[in-house]
Specification:
The chain has five helices and no strands. It is mostly helical. The chain is elongated and about 55 Å long.
């Protein structure tokens, strides 16, 4: 049996409208739900790893270059992974996150470069950037995320 072209076009249009409505309906998450999704799909893990690696850089700040260099290289590698995450769906948290990652990247790179050159003052400058720019901004990021997640409950 042959279906008239007008009937086929109407059926296709109806299916298309239904699919678009379903897609748009699925995108109507609240800001808190979007934040919860980001946090649960890798954000929490990246924050934890960054905190561990930056904490290690902080812990070895008074040790020798052979310990400081690898700690800074680890933080630099973890920062690169974190930079590949989708943006945090909270404007204030994303701003702090970006600043934290920038501080970690600059500080860890300077530290690792200084360790390779056996330049203790460069290593110290890099560690100081991690401590004064990266870590405080990460703390602010976590505070903003916790506030956003609390709003979801």
């Amino acid at each position: 049996m042959r279906v008239p072209a007008a009937t086929r076009a109407t059926a296709t249009a109806t299916v298309t409208v239904a699919a678009v409505a379903l897609l748009l309906g699925g995108c109507s998450q609240t800001p808190a739900e979007r934040l919860e999704e980001w946090y649960g799909s890798g954000g929490e893990d990246q924050i934890r790893k960054l905190n561990e690696d930056a904490g290690r850089v902080n812990e070895v700040s008074m040790r020798t270059l052979d310990v400081q260099g690898p700690a800074c290289q680890d933080l630099l590698a973890q920062t690169a992974k974190a930079e590949k995450l989708d943006p945090i769906p909270d404007e204030a948290a994303q701003r702090y996150w970006k600043e934290a990652l920038g501080g970690f990247r600059r500080g860890a790179a300077e530290c690792a470069d200084g360790a390779a050159k056996k330049d203790g003052s460069q290593v110290s400058r890099g560690i100081r950037v991690v401590q004064t720019e990266g870590l405080p901004k990460l703390v602010s990021t976590v505070s903003m995320i916790k506030a956003g997640l609390a709003a979801a409950k």
